[in-house]
Design brief:
The protein is mainly alpha-helical and about 120 residues long. Among the domains are: about 40 residues; about 40 residues. The chain has 6 helices and no strands. The radius of gyration is 28 Å and the shape is elongated. The protein starts with 7 loop residues before the first helix and ends with a helix. InterPro entries: Transposase_Tc1-like.
């Protein structure tokens, strides 16, 4: 679109992204001749894909296992937050149990009497 003479603003509206993104992409294209993104500048991964699968497998095999147990079993020094991220990436986020007061025998008896009263 830019080679056809379109403005940066028009291209941005057409492809539904910011003008800055179009400008950056165009500058990279004219400079390098490619649109491929460069490698990210973030922190390097502490675990490999194999170790990630091992973390997920341990959580699937034993759902009650905690992060610290998984951390010691992985064999790589990772922080518990990394374990949580890997599990969240596999859609295995922890769920808080619902706190409900348990019914006492007295409550059960009254509930049963109420059900019988309604049924008759």
């Amino acid at each position: 679109m830019k080679t056809a003479g379109w403005s940066t603003r028009r291209v941005a509206r057409q492809v539904d992204c910011s003008e800055c993104a179009v400008r950056t992409c165009w500058e990279q294209w004219t400079r390098d001749g490619t649109h491929v993104r460069r490698t990210a500048s973030g922190a390097t991964r502490k675990t490999t894909r194999r170790e990630d699968r091992r973390i997920v497998r341990q959580a699937l095999v034993n759902p009650t296992v905690n992060r610290f147990t998984i951390q010691s079993d992985v064999g790589v020094p990772v922080v518990p937050q990394t374990i949580s991220r890997r599990l969240a990436g596999a859609n295995l986020q922890s769920k808080r149990p619902v706190h409900v007061l348990s019914l006492t025998p007295k409550h059960r008896r009254h509930r049963l009497q109420w059900c019988h009263a309604i049924a008759t």
